[in-house]
Amino acid sequence: MIEKNSKEILIKFGFDEFFETQFQDILNSKFINEKEFLYPARVSIRHKNHYILSYEKGEIKGEISGKFHFKIDNLKDDGLGYPVVGDWVIVKIVNENESGIIEQILNRKSKFSRLAPGDVTEEQIIISNIDYIFIVSSMNKDYNERRIERYLTMAWENDLKPVLVLNKSDLCTEEEKLNFILKTEIISQGCPVIPVSSKSNENLQELLKYFEGNKSISMIGSSGVGKSSLINSLLGEEKMKVKDITEYKDKGVHTTTHRELILMPGGGVIIDTPGMRTVLMWSGSEGIESAFDDIESLSMQCKFSNCTHTNEPGCAIISALNNGSITKERLKSYRKLQNEIKYNETKQDKKLKADQKKIWKKLTTQGSQRGKNKRGI
């Protein structure tokens, strides 16, 4: 049983009824004789298979148990895989409260994932159990509408609530700032757009409101948009390492090298992430409908149901291009993401069939061997 004072600490980290119910059920069904040694903990940092865990008594180093390793490697872990930053886990405290052994992951509320970099066809979960995702862009030459569209698609695909944060407003004239806001609102599909500055503290109180109720929030964006500086400003202390930027206005420097979960002073957590060089879609059929709702809605108005939006008469999208309602760049971005999603889904289907074939081959071989053993062959 979790003590009252301990529970209050856990609640600040986002431990709610969803996780507590799981924790108690698993303890009563799988670890009934080890209850006194087991605690719920949240993954704050991950370095390969070594972890920093936050629990009711502070931070400890953690590793995965041999039994849990076996389950993951043999696909008997309910598809959860290895713990990631943001996960809630069941940990056994050892070495006089100096370290912990991770026994199990609690089911996730949410996740943010991408296609794993490289030649493998696998989902890579970046972070988990977040309520909002701050998509950070800087108001300078690095600003990229197409990148924002991609992040929005991924956020909505994972059922996350995106907030578009435009950083470094202190370096813009009012006219430049309004132009950045307008461009972002056009592609935002109704999600909040907030201009901020970690230098002047503009609108930081607006961002802090999202943490109310002990919410978990992650910041994503390319390198050098000022995520770490923004986190320091929200925390009110220099927690995250920040490098000086010679050309602060237009050139970013990559400083964050790992994902890290940090407790906010008033409760709730913020997760800093490194700038991701490769952000490929793992899935996105639903996310793209939300991120490009304007184009999706227009396509329903076309004269022909199989309209390719190229040269057909009565095409609502061509009409929108001609009257300036949508731009060629946005339509091109929509088509690019569509093609990427279809391609990756095809790869996933092929991998699934190949994996199933391997399983059936293994089962057939095992069955054949058992038959030989019975016959004494």
Please give a quick description of this structure:
The chain has helices at 4-12, 17-30, 66-73, 145-157, 174-188, 204-208, 227-235, 285-291, 293-299, 316-323, 328-375; strands at residues 38-47, 50-55, 58-64, 88-94, 99-105, 111-115, 123-128, 132-138, 161-167, 193-195, 216-220, 260-263, 269-272.
**Poorly predicted sequence stretches spanning 5 or more consecutive residues:** none
User: What is the CATH architecture annotation of the largest domain?
Assistant: 3-Layer(aba) Sandwich
Helix content: 25-40%
Lateral arrangement of strands in the main beta sheet: 10-9-8-11-13-12
Secondary-structure element series? HHEEEHEEEEEHEHEHEHEEHHHH
As a whole number of angstroms, the C-alpha radius of gyration is 24 Å
The N- and C-terminal alpha carbons lie at a distance of 55 Å
Broad structural category = alpha/beta
Short descriptors:
377 residues; 38% helix; alpha/beta; six-stranded mixed beta sheet; OB fold (Dihydrolipoamide Acetyltransferase, E2P); Rossmann fold
Explain the overall architecture.
With 377 residues, this protein is α/β, with parallel strands linked by helices. It has 2 domains: 4-105, Nucleic acid-binding proteins (OB fold (Dihydrolipoamide Acetyltransferase, E2P), Beta Barrel), CATH 2.40.50.140; 111-272, Rossmann fold (3-Layer(aba) Sandwich), CATH 3.40.50.300. Helices cover 38% and strands 21% of the residues. The protein has 11 helices and 13 strands. The strands form 3 sheets. The chain has a 6-stranded mixed beta sheet with strand order 10-9-8-11-13-12, sandwiched between helices. The protein has a 5-stranded mixed barrel with strand order 1-2-3-5-4. A two-stranded antiparallel sheet has the order 6-7. Helix 4 packs across helix 5 (174-188) and helix 4 packs across helix 8 (285-291). The longest helix is centred in the last third of the chain and has 48 residues, at 328-375. The protein is globular, with a radius of gyration of 24 Å. The N and C termini lie far apart (55 Å). The mean pLDDT is 85.
